[in-house]
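Q: Hi! Curious about what Methyltransferase, FkbM family looks like structurally. Here's the sequence.
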Amino acid sequence: MTGGSGAPPARPRRITLPDGPEVWCTSVPAATTMWREMAPPGTYDRAAASLTEGATVLDIGANIGLMSVLCARKAPAVRVIAAEPAPELFACLRLNLELHCASWEAECVAVADRPGELPFTYYPQAPGNSGLFADPVADREVTRRYLTNTGLDPEDAAELTEGLHEGVAYRVPAVTVSELIRRHRVARVDLLKVDVERAELDVLRGVADEDWPRVDRVVAEAHDEDGRLARCERLLRSKGFEVTVSQDPLLTGTVLYEVEAGRPA
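A: Let's find out. The predicted structure is below.
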């Protein structure tokens, strides 16, 4: 690792999530917040609930694997293929897949529009915001707004987010979705989940034209910056999907939106 001045990575801890399973994580607050995002009637819960036995899920930007865990709880025989580039998170991801998923494969890689090696920023204190295109100022503002939307006093929210996005920079291997499909011999992708902190359009562009017919459903977090959200919508519609965009009420006033795309009935 080179560069950065963040706190040293935390050791994995095994916790029980509120109304949820036992999981391994590096940050209890981050894991708890991410699990709240999985709760009904949210986008992730709807996507997981759509799965049937034997479905295949590509979990891109898996973090510690909570979406994979949720999918396995909804459809126990689901097959999970997960990708997470941060070694600290990948260690927890593997432990959580072993705990909760009957059929899984995982790679410690970023997913982009082309293979190679890319710079990555890891936030030890805010692991869910880590990514290829980390922006500490913007990321702090999103977190601050989220906290105030929960009812926290603005001054307290500002204090809590101070130093939260001090990052550690290193380089990570990158692959495309289509490369993962080939490597793991995937015939059908029942759910493509994308949560990659500003790299969502690159991930979608990394699906080769011949592989889009394999993909049945997409759920993605998208940043409405520089027209990225609209471009994600256009790309998905051009591939034959019906697209819905929504926003978690706790993210009101931020650039974060949820994109759901499914094949017409």
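A: A fun detail: The chain has nine helices and twelve strands.
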